[in-house]
Amino acid sequence: MADTGRFWNRVQEECRTVAARTSVRAKRAVRQGVLQVDLVSLRRDRGRALADLGERLLRLWTEGRVAAVEQDQEALRLKGVVESIEKDITAKEAEAAELHRPPEGSAPGATAEVVDPK
Asked: Could you give the CA distance from residue 73 to residue 22 in angstroms, rounded to a whole number?
């Protein structure tokens, strides 16, 4: 009878362990997904800001005011927006790379799940 009790205790402990691992992996996968969506959104915003900046520079070029680019408030604002978005992208990419690493304390030789970042 004692052997049966130990067996069921081991089964219960294994179930708890599996449930905990699954929960951690699910949270990690959700975070990776959120980061990927954020990156897509940031890249789209950067593309729009670059297009707006290019449009502004073309307008200045056609008006013959190329030298006024460094004093043009709208061009400077758009440049700041692009730089800010690029910093955000860099931070999100670093966080995504960190999530792709295997968690500390995992079994030797374990690898993180590979998710295509694009």
From this structure: 52
